[in-house]
Amino acid sequence: MLAGVLCGTLTWTACSTAWIGEAEQIVAALVPAAANIVALVATLQGKSVSASDLETIQNAGSQAGADLQLLQSLIGAYQKADAPAQLGILNQIQAAINAAQSTMNGLLPALHIKDAATEAKITAVGGIVLSEIQSLAAIVPLVDPSASSGMMATAARQVKKQPPLSASEFVGSYNATMTAKTGNADLDHATAGMKIHLHGKFARWASAGLLK
Asked: Which stretches does DSSP call E strand in 28-176?
């Protein structure tokens, strides 16, 4: 039944636990994506972003970054673990995703940006990051052998309604949104160099971690 649900809702899982490899790439893209939101706000402080908003987003960004970094390490551990150990790690993966989701959920309502273009940009970029984290959260019950049928049915409906982007799709959507022109010269200048990039595992290894 699990295989049928996965095959019917997640084309990139290849009907197996290969989903974790795609999740690894997605999280590798989410880490710099979240960091760029903090960098953008810092660049605009004093222009359209207040010091209090900068502090808010720096704190949230640090927490989200820590949650995503933990998620990366848990995914690596899951890939190396045997089946009994994977179940426990899967629970930790779910907890890390939920923590990152909670942080991002509370971030945007806490900001008080007066410039409409800047507010719209940060809301749009933050929304893409949050949406991808939410989609990842919905996947975990589908690959959890201990999940109840009710949990799996709920997760399947959520994934069908809001399927996660692949890593490359996420990067493309994020970059297009981040660099879209707004007419605000300071904002457009700040976002022009904030694209993120997707590199394969070998490239990241060969660069000693410098490539993400």
From this structure: none
